[in-house]
């Protein structure tokens, strides 16, 4: 029995085709499921919202916190991949100073790791620059040649691991900005950088629109189920129930999309009226209730970033951490 199963899965054309389809389509679907399970709509909404605390990072000048993701992301692009992971450790310092709750830390870790894992898996399948020297973990049969990938390769996994470091660095640096900075402070920082205040407003509104959209979608699906529409997912053994479940999923899409679109238009109209009521954009020179001045903590943060940038540029000049093609 074991020998027959081994032959079917690893040597027969049908078995290898089934495994190839599972690797291509089922495994990538696991990441969104894990993301939704660990984060959820409420967790995502809270992740993109400001959390008031009295920490070192919260008290920093908003201009420093807005520049921080751009500086860190630029340095990660310049560095070779094996130096990006020490840079990732540097981005953990603000999180240690903020000391988020265990629930918030789980959400942050999920949001940092999920895109990185997806990138690693996609590169393991589609990294085919040197197809003649690839060491295959699992080779796809000829029936899957239309996918454009020979299979799962070690070189692809390593290349994905190299690229994932830069994704995690940028995500970690950006999330700390969202957690510790008020929307008004972001607008103030953009204005002080001689950029239109509307850019800062659009930035903050866009960051909060996505979690609101997900939350509204979740609420609409719950409303549909309360009114008797069956969206309960069958078990993996109930093969006969899956076609009906998939048909109900496709049928509910227009039912949810129309009220979602109407609600989004109403929210946009309300936001526009609030902006107009506060005379946003009527004056070229804006005034703010709180004007930030550089304090001791700000100079410490600037010194740390300057020292980090100096070390990186020194490594690049000495051709120690130069990014390899």
Descriptive notes:
The protein is built from eleven helices and two strands; from the N terminus they run H-H-H-H-H-H-E-E-H-H-H-H-H. The chain has 325 residues and is mainly α. The chain has helices spanning 2-10, 13-38, 40-47, 62-78, 81-98, 102-126, 154-180, 183-192, 197-226, 242-277, 296-317; strands at 136-139, 151-153.
DSSP helix fraction: over 70%
Major sheet strand order? 1-2
Straight-line N-to-C gap: 48 Å
| Mean pLDDT score | 80
Tell me the overall shape.
flat
Count of helical segments? Answer: 11
Number of domains: 1
- The H/E string reads HHHHHHEEHHHHH
Computed structural class: mainly alpha
Low-confidence stretches: none
What secondary-structure arrangement, pairings included, does this model have?
Elements: H1 2-10, H2 13-38, H3 40-47, H4 62-78, H5 81-98, H6 102-126, E1 136-139, E2 151-153, H7 154-180, H8 183-192, H9 197-226, H10 242-277, H11 296-317
Antiparallel strand pairs: 1-2
Helix pairs in contact: 1-2, 2-6, 3-9, 4-5, 4-7, 4-11, 5-7, 6-7, 8-9, 9-10
């Amino acid at each position: 029995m074991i020998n027959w199963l081994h032959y079917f899965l690893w040597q027969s054309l049908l078995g290898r085709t089934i495994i190839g389809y599972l690797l291509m389509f089922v495994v990538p679907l696991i990441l969104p499921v894990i993301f939704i399970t660990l984060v959820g709509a409420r967790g995502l909404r809270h992740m993109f919202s400001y959390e008031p605390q009295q920490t070192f990072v919260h008290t920093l000048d908003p201009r420093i916190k807005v520049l921080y993701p751009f500086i860190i992301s630029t340095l990660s692009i310049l560095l070779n991949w094996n130096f990006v992971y020490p840079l990732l450790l540097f981005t953990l310092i603000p999180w240690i100073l903020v000391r988020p709750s265990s629930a918030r830390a789980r959400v942050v870790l999920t949001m940092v790791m999920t895109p990185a894992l997806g990138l690693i898996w996609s590169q393991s399948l589609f990294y085919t620059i040197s197809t003649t020297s690839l060491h295959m973990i699992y080779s796809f049969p000829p029936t899957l040649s239309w996918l454009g990938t020979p299979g799962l390769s070690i070189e692809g996994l390593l290349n994905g691991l190299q690229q994932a470091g830069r994704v995690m660095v940028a995500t970690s640096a950006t999330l700390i900005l969202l957690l510790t900075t008020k929307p008004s402070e972001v607008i103030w920082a953009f204005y002080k950088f001689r950029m239109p205040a509307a850019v800062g407003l659009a930035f903050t509104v866009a960051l909060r629109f996505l979690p609101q959209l997900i939350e509204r979608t979740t609420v609409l699906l719950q409303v549909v189920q309360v009114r008797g529409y069956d969206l309960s997912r069958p078990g993996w053994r109930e093969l006969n129930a899956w076609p009906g479940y998939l048909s109900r999923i496709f049928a509910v899409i227009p039912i949810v999309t129309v009220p979602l679109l109407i609600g989004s238009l109403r929210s946009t109209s309300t936001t526009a009226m609030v902006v107009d009521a506060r005379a946003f954009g009527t004056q070229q020179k804006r005034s703010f209730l709180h004007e930030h001045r550089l304090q001791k903590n700000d100079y410490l943060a600037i010194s740390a970033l300057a020292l980090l940038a100096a070390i990186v540029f020194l490594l690049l000049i000495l051709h120690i951490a130069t990014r390899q093609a």
